[in-house]
Amino acid sequence: MFNSTTNYDFPFPVIVQRTVFSNTQSLNLELGKFVEFIIKTKPDATNQNYIATESAKQVDCNILVDYYNKEKCITTLMDKIINPEVKKWTNKHFNSLLNREIVNPLYHMTSWATLYDPGSWQTPHIHREKMFTGVYYFKMNDDTSNVDHQSPDVRSEGSLVIQNPHPQSCQPLLGGWQTHKEYLPVEGELIIMPSWVSHFPKPFKKGTRGVIVFDGAFLGEQNG
Ligand SMILES: [Fe+2]
Q1: How many domains would you assign to the chain?
Q2: CA of 223 to the centre of ligand 1 (A)
Q3: Residue 11 belongs to domain with CATH number
Q4: Spacing, Cα 127 to ligand 1 middle (Å)
Q5: Domain limits at 45?
Q6: Distance 57 CA to ligand 1 centre (A)
Q7: Is the pLDDT of residue 138 over 90?
């Protein structure tokens, strides 16, 4: 149904998996409508303590879990996009740690949806006690390369910034000379990275950005 292309990047070094899915226009529109609907009907989560989201609208429900097998667009997103990509990322992760795959990893997934308006963003944060964090972009903001007076590698509005966890490192090959890395996603892209890496989305001037975000806490390996 969807074709996809995956690229890996290993800044600092952490595993950043970027997969762009084609033919997602109608799915993205359905997700946008559904997220707008639940944001109108459910409590807003952004007025709670310690949430990093600044000014954006974030619905207080576990969207991927609560609506799986109930809303077609969420079921399709999980079955065709998120679950296969989580499997790929966790394979890379456990291979890098253990030099083997964990065939049936068990994890507890938490998820939410956020709509960003111009000027809204998140403060740098990690997802505590989780293994991986993923962001699916069903809508990207307009004018993504519009930041003046910045060096060329940090000019993209609305990009995802990942911060170097050891900026004092003197090991250039581990990313010691870079303070951060930016990724400018496209609509239909899913980015998965480790939850312990500090990250934040940059603000933008025009349009709306819509994301479905999830993270997974590792519970162990399923036997058999
Ligand atoms: Fe985050």
Answers
A1: 1
A2: 31
A3: 2.60.120.620
A4: 6
A5: 4-218
A6: 14
A7: yes
